[in-house]
Write a structure and sequence with these properties.
Blueprint: E1 2-3, E2 7-8, H1 11-25, H2 37-54, H3 56-64, E3 71-72, E4 75-76, E5 78-80, E6 86-89
Amino acid sequence: MKLDGAIEIRTSTVLSVASLVAAFAGLPVAAGEWATKEDAIAMVQRAVVFITQQGREKAYAEITKKVGQFHDRDLYITVLNFDGKILATGQSKNRQEPDRH
């Protein structure tokens, strides 16, 4: 997927994320407690547009905020480079693995 020539995202990566979300979306939980597959896909799409429009520095700062537009129930955005290094994440610091790169 290519947006305005600014950011190229591998479709297989996006589909892998969507597949993982879909797998967990079927688990029985209280209504509204967990986000849906559609919620996850929409958040990823919003994040791609935000990064494209606002630039990496501003977007990564927004993604890293613990309260903001890229947090919804159990959803948050994580941005990795192609070497697997975390560039931005909304995950709680105490749940992140140490950066091994």
